[in-house]
User: Which sequence fits this backbone?
């Protein structure tokens, strides 16, 4: 079946599919370096509808679309500047916007928003973050970054650190990690921000070895990939709790001495305090390259959605 929408990384639990996407992304990077990106999406219009703030996701999707010769229309504060402020439902807004464009990239604070949008949209919906749910395109670029930086997507140890409860990039990445063989996952969070049960039972079902703790130092010498995340301030109902946990884990110069010398440091960004600036110049810090990879992964995904959707499996 065709890939109609991109809603969850559960749609991508197929190694061949992932490798195809990564190859296309590699190709677009090479073409871009030579200023020779084929204008494959001429006459297509992408709508970027963002009800929550974004820098990387929206700019990289827009840039990806423009590089491929397409056009972009967008609203970066849809909750205020679209008819939502007048009381229009998400469903009605999507029905209307899907009549004006060929695909919609949607970011919304509610966890089922992308699925709801897909039900009423006449064009593909790309989930660019649905509240505390998922952020599939981020996880695809994260997994791509792992392959590029450590040279493999098997036989590695990964630390997922920070806000595992609300962090949607973590949720999407967990599904992709399950594709790897001989992988071990260290879940590190304050006890209030542990990974929700449903992701842990998923890991169990897939036979992935994992452990939970609140200790960053212990895992530093062990991991090949250290994936840091921001504590998601906007999801807390108690600001007091946020204040208590916000600086639970800070990676600084001292931690670098303990980190495995081949271990790469990733972060979906934005960072707040969890990675000190002094870490940026370490050659294991790959988060800025990771963000750049988002451009090429999104070019590949747009290309697949518009032109080669038949090669991809649909949501399981
Ligand atoms: C993430 C998000 O929006 O979930 N940002 C991103 O897209 N790179 C991570 C975050 O906001 O902490």
Assistant:
């Amino acid at each position: 079946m065709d890939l109609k929408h991109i809603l969850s990384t559960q749609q991508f639990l197929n190694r061949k599919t992932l490798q195809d996407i990564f190859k296309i992304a590699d190709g677009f990077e090479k073409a871009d370096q030579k200023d020779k990106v084929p204008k494959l999406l001429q006459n297509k219009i992408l709508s970027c509808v963002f009800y929550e703030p974004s820098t990387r996701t929206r700019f990289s999707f827009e840039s990806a679309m423009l590089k491929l010769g397409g056009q972009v229309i967008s609203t970066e504060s849809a909750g205020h500047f679209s008819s939502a402020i007048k009381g229009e439902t998400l469903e009605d807004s999507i029905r209307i916007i899907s009549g004006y464009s060929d695909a919609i990239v949607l970011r919304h604070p509610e966890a089922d928003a992308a699925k709801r949008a897909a039900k009423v949209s006449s064009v593909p919906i790309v989930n660019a973050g649905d509240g505390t749910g998922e952020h599939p395109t981020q996880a695809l670029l994260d997994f791509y970054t792992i392959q590029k930086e450590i040279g493999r997507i098997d036989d590695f140890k990964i630390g997922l650190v920070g806000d595992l409860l609300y962090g949607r990039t973590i949720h999407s990445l967990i599904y992709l990690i399950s594709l790897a063989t001989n992988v071990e996952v260290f879940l590190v969070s304050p006890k209030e921000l542990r990974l929700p049960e449903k992701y842990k039972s998923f890991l169990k079902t897939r036979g992935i070895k994992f452990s939970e703790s609140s200790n960053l130092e212990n895992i530093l010498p062990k991991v090949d990939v250290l994936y840091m995340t921001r504590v998601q301030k906007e999801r807390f109902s108690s600001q007091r709790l946020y204040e208590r946990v916000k600086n639970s884990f800070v990676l600084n110069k001292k931690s670098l001495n303990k980190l495995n010398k081949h271990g790469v440091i990733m972060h979906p960004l934005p960072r707040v305090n969890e990675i000190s600036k002094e870490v940026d110049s370490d050659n294991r810090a790959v988060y800025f390259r990771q963000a750049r990879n988002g451009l090429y992964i999104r070019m590949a995904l747009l290309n697949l959605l518009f032109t080669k959707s038949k090669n991809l499996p649909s949501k399981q």
